[in-house]
Amino acid sequence: MKLVGTLFAGFGLLVASVGFGNAWAQQDRQVPASRQQVQLSYAPLVQQATPAVVNIYTTKIRRRSAMFDDSLLKRFFGDQFGFSVPKERVQGSLGSGVIVRPDGVIVTNHHVIEGADEIKVVLADRREFDAEVVLADPRTDLAILRIPIGDELLPTLALADSDDVLVGDIVLAIGNPFGVGQTVTSGIISATARTQRGISDYGFFIQTDAAVNPGNSGGALVGLSGKLLGINTAIYSRTGASNGIGFAIPASMVKSVLRAALNDGQIARPWLGIKGQSVTSDIASSFGLDRAGGVLVDEVYAGGPADLAGVLPGDVIMAVDGKEVIDEPALKFRVATLENGENVPLAVLSEGGFVQEREIKLNLPPETPLRNTIEIDGRHPFQGITVANLSPKFNEELQIDPFLRGVIVLKVNRRTPAGRYQYLLPGDLLLRLNNQSVSTVADVNQILADGAEQYIYQFRRRGRVRECAITDRGSFRCRNVR
Length: 482
Fold this sequence. Notes:
The protein is an alpha+beta fold. It has helices at 23-26, 35-38, 43-49, 71-77, 110-113, 251-263, 281-286, 305-308, 328-336, 392-398, 417-421, 441-449; strands at residues 53-67, 84-101, 105-108, 118-122, 128-130, 132-137, 142-146, 170-175, 183-194, 205-208, 220-223, 228-235, 246-250, 274-278, 295-300, 316-320, 323-324, 343-350, 354-361, 374-375, 385-389, 407-412, 429-433, 436-437, 454-461, 464-471, 476-480. The chain contains twelve helices and 27 strands. The strands form four sheets. Strands 20, 21, 22, 23, 24, 25, 26 and 27 form an eight-stranded antiparallel β-sheet that branches. A seven-stranded antiparallel β-sheet has the order 5-4-1-2-3-7-6. The protein has a six-stranded antiparallel barrel with strand order 8-9-10-13-12-11.
């Protein structure tokens, strides 16, 4: 597959399996050759797949103020009596799920079960079970549930290799749209590797025109092999109903989250230790490439996996583990589906226009320095502010630039002067305090322990640096520095 013109004459051996055009994957795909073949039914496939797709019903209990419910007072004053007591209101929602292990392990969308006080799973044979959450991952919008099935073995859907799908493949979407009950719709794969959708932090989706509606979330996208290609998660619609553009989370990401759930229930995603940007057409032109694609490395974390593999700023990452990288979200997705400690090849375009294969050992982002989260105490204006040290690991949890360093504000006690006057806000990065640089929480404690008649400090908020001064009389003024 030619990716970026003549510069990649020798690149085919490195990424022979890149993209979705593998010759071996096309051998079983044939256009119907007769009227009889056109009239073939999906019924055998449906009968095989539907027992593994479940309906999910959740309830959320919300407390609200309600009129006093004493029957004697109601008799005289009706519902207008002025005493109020807490009253519970139950909200219900619905979705779908897929049984992926015979012992009752189910995958669904995180947004289906988010905030639920009760989760009920209804099998295709109408049996009902209360489910427990094994793992909930809002960043991928996936959740793993388990139901108490005893020694019984449930029907399952095996996970397919979602990288083998081709545009035009026939698929079935199975779920519980609008709560009408289990429903099967058919369509084709409309597109693959859809990024920049804003649906989750790891946006890389299979697009289908099979009808997907509210309630289908968490349901199955099944190929003609009878395997699970993805979890239906979102639609593009102005009305809330299907317009023929639905998105499914690929099975490769489902495998990653399922693996974490069945191990220790904790997701530990590896990282490359780089900061980069998608190669646009303008950037591609400056490199002498004939099309956009790949990720331009802007910065490399010292001692990180990419650094140890010899990746340099200015390199362009074109593929990971033999799979094409079309942009920065695609790179993020590819790395997130791999295992910590795994050795994988990177196809890297370096200075001079040569593509090289670099083997990289994936590791977890380090927590250096330790976050050391504290709530500042003492007789000074910063009392009640909770701060912590940034690190690649903590930054990943906060979903901010992994290369940021310093002290971040996490919380401000609203009952303190710092909260009332908003000296600092959550998310602010403290840079200087009383003309001294601040690198760690220990620096903050040391500076504040010395005391002062006034406090001058600098911080970064949403990319802008501000300087503020607080006097011992409580006056407070700020200005923009840059």
